[in-house]
Structures are given as C-alpha cells and as structure tokens.
Amino acid sequence: MATTARDGVGVAQSPVEVAQTRDRALLRGFLERDRLRAAYAICDLDPTEFGRTRWGIARENGLPIAVVLEYTGLTPQPLFVMGDAGGIVRVLREVIRPRLVYLAADAAHIAPIERVYRVDPGPPMIRMYVNRHTFRPVSGVAVRLMPAEVTDLNRLYGLGFTSWLPPEAVARGVYYGVRLGGRLVAAAGTHVISREARLAAVGNVMTDADFRNRGFAKLTTSAVTEELLRTCDEIVLNVRSDNPSAIAAYAALGYHEYCQFEERLAHRRGGPWDSIVGQLRQLLSTRKEPM
After folding, report:
1. Which of 13, 89, 114, 147 is the most buried (most CB within 10 A)?
2. Alpha carbons 105 and 58: distance in angstroms, whole number
3. Residue 57's CB: how many other CB atoms inside 10 A?
4. Full DSSP string of 39-91
C-alpha cells in the first residue's frame, strides 16, 4: 500500500516522490500557477539569484505537487513553500533540511509543517501588488541612491534592521531616498528583481523616527515603483497585517491586497534546544501548585 502525501494515511494511490532539482523550467512552470503568491521564488530563478538557492520538489504520477525553496547565505535562511501540504512536509523531512529558517507559507501549511519545525507566533502578512494600470505616483523629490551611499543607507536601516546591505545589493537593485540637510532620512528599495519574469519585490522601506508621518515612505516607495514599472509588469511587496498606516500608504499608490500568508521564524525539531525545551515542559507539567 502506498502512502499519499496528501492525507498521510495508507491508501491505494500512486506514491509521492521527492527530490532536489535544478530544473528551472519545471520550477517556473509550477510557480507561475500563482505568480503573485510565488513572486519572490520566481525572481530567485534568475541567474543572478539561482546560485544561492536550493530547491526540493514533490511529484505524484510524475507531476509536481509541491515546491520548497531554501535561500542560502542568510541567517535565518528564507524558506518558501507552495503546493500540497503533505508533499511540502515530505520535502522538508527528506530533502531540504535547514535548522533555522524564516518561513513563508500559507496559513493552512503551518500545522503540517509543525511536525518538522517549531513555528514561532506572529501576525499574518499581506502580499500587495501593483501594475501600470493601477499605479498612482505621488509628487515630490526622491533621489536615486548609488552604491557609494550604502553607508548612509545602512545607518538608516540600523535604526530598525539587524542585517546590513552590501554595495552590490544597491547596484543590482533600485533604491531611492529623501535627504534633508544632507542627511538620509528615508529610503525604499528592492528585495529582488527578475528581468526574465518582468517581476520585482519592493522592500527595505524605512523612515527615521524623527521624520515620520511626513509622507516620505510613500514618496520613496512611489519612486522605486515607478522605476521598476519601466521594465516589470507587476511589483509586489509585503506588509504586516497589524500596520494599517503602511497598508493605507501603499494602497494610496495603487497597490492592492492579493493574499495573506504567514512569515514566521521556525526551528527544526530534534535538535538540542528541542530536547531542553521538552524537559522543561515535562518538569512544569509535573510540578504541583503549593497548597
């Protein structure tokens, strides 16, 4: 009796096969089924990013039913999953096995994935998108940032981010900023751009705390979006669902909500930390309250 990845019980169905793959055409064909949901992963198929990725795929009857993407070189490692939940779990158990990840998954995937990873709590994320027809730019002065300005950019991001950008990230991407008195007080940029797919993801939007509520985030995001739409058909961005002011700012630029998803820190089960946590939980569960 074969076990299907879809329900996890013994049934007379075709077995699911899991493996690593570097077949970009196969991956693109699957991811394009939900282009905006899989936008980051599609962009990572471009030659500039593909070398940093590891891919796992689940097949049933020879056809792909799930894909897992691990983006290497960062800590925690970004991990994107899409497709059949059982197939995703099989890939995570047997093929793609990072210890600490920043998971992007549909809400329905969290419970199955928790068989393999402890997933931290967090608010849902909103994926928003814009195209040339919906985009509404705002007027104002934002300047294109060059790689030589990365020190100023990282100083700004140091107010709220733990990771720092290298100059090549600015060179490959599109970054705009607002300067007041020579000081960089706001910026927006890109996470990834695909020339092949004509798709990009806006991110790294930050305003100095002393200069917020002046529309600078909207202005810099508008400038980045306008630049990207010269060569891209759709632009996406992520925003926390508990950040209504940011959602409203992006909506004012013509961004629309596409879907909600979970973006969570996750730790692989079975490591030393899980053993310690398990012992503590057992101790607390057997501890009696004082009379």
Report:
1. 89
2. 16
3. 23
4. HHHHHTTSHHHHTTEEEEEEEETTEEEEEEEEE-SSSSEEEEEEE-HHHHHHH
Interval 19-46 mean pLDDT: 98
Please determine, for residue 45, whether its predicted confidence score (pLDDT) is greater than 70.
yes
CA distance from start to end of the chain: 55
Q: CA quadruple 200, 203, 204, 208: dihedral positive or negative?
A: positive
- Name the CATH superfamily for 135-254: Gcn5-related N-acetyltransferase (GNAT) (3.40.630.30)
Instruction: Determine what percent of the chain is predicted with pLDDT higher than 70.
Output: 86
Q: What is the pLDDT of residue 272?
A: 56
Rounded to two decimals, what is the model's pTM? 0.86
Q: Where are the domains of the chain?
A: 16-124+263-286, 135-254
CATH of 16-124+263-286, one of 3.40.1190.20, 1.10.10.10, 3.40.630.30, 3.10.20.740: 3.40.630.30
